[in-house]
Description:
Distance between the termini: 61 Å
Strand content: over 45%
CATH class of the largest domain: Mainly Beta
Number of strands: 10
Number of domains: 2
Structural class: alpha+beta
Helix content: 10-25%
Order of helices and strands: HEEEEEEEHEEE
Radius of gyration: 27 Å
Bound molecules: 2-acetamido-2-deoxy-beta-D-glucopyranose
Oligomer: single chain
CATH topology of the largest domain: Immunoglobulin-like
CATH architecture of the largest domain: Sandwich
Amino acid sequence: MAKTRRPLIICCVVTAVLLIIIIVTAITLYFTLFKPKQPKITTQSLTLESFSTNVFDLTDTNFTLGITVGIDNPNYGGFKYENSTSYVTYHGDVVAVAPVMADTIPARGQHNVGTTVLVIIKSLVTNPNFSKDMGTDTLNFTSTTTLKGKATALKIFKKKATTYSSCDISLHVLERNVTSICKSKVKF
Ligand SMILES: *[C@@H]1O[C@H](CO)[C@@H](O)[C@H](O)[C@H]1NC(C)=O
Ligand SMILES: *[C@@H]1O[C@H](CO)[C@@H](O)[C@H](O)[C@H]1NC(C)=O
Ligand SMILES: *[C@@H]1O[C@H](CO)[C@@H](O)[C@H](O)[C@H]1NC(C)=O
Ligand SMILES: *[C@@H]1O[C@H](CO)[C@@H](O)[C@H](O)[C@H]1NC(C)=O
Ligand SMILES: *[C@@H]1O[C@H](CO)[C@@H](O)[C@H](O)[C@H]1NC(C)=O
């Protein structure tokens, strides 16, 4: 009797130990590799894509800004973001908008989200700050791009994430150039 029982007990113990190892490994993997992680904003750039002005009337100036936000997705699953809009404001008034198309950043991938926005200076002339700013040849704008999305891992673990990026832009009409300082934030 005892002779036939012993292998059975050993078998049960081995099975139990293996099960515990598998469960611990699964839990550890979930909390390390497969836990949804927040996307990171790695680069931000703002470029002057085009500039046209009327030498007889400097308020007749148009320029196009290229806005690019580089996002890094550290997850073993995609980061899917919704359609969005980039805004350019002048002293708090929205003066230009540009659409940002919904897309998915692949697992453990990097992706540049970009758009171009046209600003027509003539549309600012009614702003009370305009003539004073034009006198100093410095028009300050702020651009903002917000992306709302979901980070997924293994298709089952999902978490909402929102990236915010904004740039303070100074346009110098006479020098035909822009300088900018950008900052970003991710809410998870
Ligand atoms: C700026 O754009 C407006 C509207 O498209 C146009 O009427 C105007 O001629 C443009 N001005 C310059 C200097 O390109
Ligand atoms: C996003 O925008 C595109 C193009 O404007 C449109 O075809 C699509 O239906 C939009 N998607 C959503 C979820 O609104
Ligand atoms: C813009 O104009 C408002 C009201 O005229 C004024 O309070 C504010 O200080 C001005 N801002 C700048 C940066 O000149
Ligand atoms: C525009 O922004 C620059 C840099 O942020 C600042 O030094 C300057 O005073 C601002 N000028 C106006 C007119 O708001
Ligand atoms: C813009 O022009 C000003 C004046 O000429 C210069 O000091 C500045 O370096 C220029 N900035 C860029 C980004 O070219």
